[in-house]
Amino acid sequence: MHLENLIAMNLKNYPEIIAHELGLQVKQVENVLELLESGATIPFIARYRKEATDSLDEVQIGNIKERHIRLVELDKRRAAILDSIREQGKLTAELESQIEAAVGMTELEDLYLPYRPKRKTRASVAKERGLEPLAAIIMSQRENNLLGIARRHVNPKIGIVSPEDALAGARDIIAEWVSENPKIRERLRQFFAKESVISSKVVKGKDKEGEKFSIYFNFSERLVKSPSHRILAMFRGEEEGFLHLTIAPDESRVLPGIRKYFVKADNMCSEQVVLAINDAYKRLLQPQMETEMRKLYKEKADREAIGVFVENLRQLLLAPPLGQKIVMAIDPGFRTGCKVVILNRQGKLLHNETIYPHPPKPQYRLASDKLKRMVEQYKVEAIAIGNGTAGRETEFFISKIPFDHKVQAVVVNESGASIYSASQIARDEFPDYDVTVRGAVSIGRRLMDPLAELVKIDPKSIGVGQYQHDVNQTLLQESLDTTVESCVNYVGVEVNTASKELLSRVSGVGPALAKNIVEYRNEHGPFASRAELKKVPRFGEKSFEQAAGFLRIHGAANPLDASAVHPESYGIVDEMACRCGCSVPELMNDEEKRKSIVLQDYVNDRVGLPTLTDIMQELAKPGRDPRTQFDIFSFDSSIHTINDLKEGMVVPGIITNITNFGCFVDIGVHQDGLVHVSQITDHYVSNPNDVVRLNQKVMVKVMSVEVDRKRISLSIKDAK
What we know:
It is a single chain. By secondary structure, the chain is an alpha/beta fold. The chain folds into five domains: 3-115, Orthogonal Bundle (Arc Repressor Mutant, subunit A), CATH 1.10.10; 122-309, Orthogonal Bundle (Tex N-terminal region-like); 327-448, YqgF/RNase H-like domain (Nucleotidyltransferase, domain 5, 2-Layer Sandwich); 510-620, Tex RuvX-like domain-like (DNA polymerase, domain 1), CATH 1.10.150.310; 642-719, CATH 2.40.50.140. The protein is built from 30 helices and 15 strands. The strands form four sheets. A five-stranded mixed β-sheet has the order 6-5-4-7-8, with helices on both faces. Strands 11-12-13-15-14 form a five-stranded mixed β-barrel. A three-stranded antiparallel β-sheet has the order 2-1-3.
């Protein structure tokens, strides 16, 4: 059944409409909407209500939620439009039927356009002068004595001093009729979408000032072929006043179609209609359609750019953690020195001081002795070095120090650390320390657990997107927040060590409840069980249902409290253990006993095979971290600055950002190099995220180096 028929049959039958659009079963959609209405979160539904949704993932559930919101908004707008036209006394049965059957906001607004209250227009002025009957006669195209009829409308008192004045006013009315015709607008919209060319030219006198947009000074291409990053770049150039953009198809291919629709004769009336059509297109339709295309393709470019940002953020948040180690973290610097901090296995600050191993006041020996003493005293297991200013120099300095035991030094991406160090969150946590100490702590904690530390920073400050300041900021923030929450719940959170910021991202928790959890923990000590969470103020049954499965309590009496098994399923595990003649801990430690379990025996009205399968996986590896294992990476020790690079070199690097046009790779010279999308593999790549991932260690070949412009071109495919 067509979507139009579904909507016509039942405007409020949202599940059927959504199921039809997304290729899902109606029952799946109904259950998702019911769960969302009950207050369930997307991560909870995806993880713990697989039977209800037939194992839909978070993306599918999110799509259902988004489409439902849009359908509700569509119907609200539909009702408002019907009320408006009804109040005007112009609502016919046919028009009402058309409005009821409209399937999208654009179609709805096209139908409403002739009835929308307007400011004064040329057409409205002409109507006030009584020229609408003349316009109707012209549109009928049956009158041969048009000048005679036009003379009857001459009235100098109202500004119509000649027949031509009357005809001009009538043409204004006809032009508005043409521009408001829903069928013409839809045909024109489709033509613009398929055939438009986006052209950009430099604004006169802005050549030098806008040099960074020089490739767009005289540029044009088919709009449908223009990639998102190019559209956003041109829009930015226009916004900054350097470029002038136009979006339109060839006018000579547009006007004949409109004329064919309206021109029905070959007389003076039809000549007037042609003139009105030309005016309608140039003055009304073309600007309106260009505005729509700008909006449409800007939204498309935004979605693609945000999609890249989201995928990059997901990869960054799910980067392998070093784990609970005693870490020395160093925020490098030249003039102000290197800030050094020591963190215990839980990330608590134990010690801080500043060393000066670099010019302009090098104290190499003293700095070396201090680090050796701290490494020995605190039994440091790893050293985190920020990758900003003086990062490579500090890494080289560390590599020459003979510590009393093996200590691995790791360069850490410090993007956003300065944002965190100056934030209220950092000030609350370290009120007695300055921003340099806080920044070093953040660098160390990022090595230990990237997810736990990065949730404290606005995702937009992490710097892993493209044109992030040009896209829809509301949509960007919503998408990034959703991604952060998805990652946090995917990994799970240790409730007894997690920060307030990390806890607030857990399904069903939020900032207020996270604050209550931390305050309860501070007052009563570590939680002994998941059940104890119910003692936290405002942690009710619904919050417990949504959150408990994602919260971990290692060392609890019940080992399931450290797993992703939801407390609502503890009874099933108890029954499994009972039938196997053992305790739950014994069942978790005995693979043979677990293999003897027939899952079908535990299926009931509420629990099916998807949940039972998840339970068995958790029993095998309770509370396992789904992130990959930490992998040590080192830059080429012979390369420290861009001046050390030569064409043809093959060097190790780490991918720091991914865009639609390629990826950026840090090779340890304070300036990331670009691997153009054509240099990633020998095959065509439409989305680099399909081939490479953030933080991936790669070998790259240096293709070209522009020292003055600080540009490095690299190739992954030629390095193999």
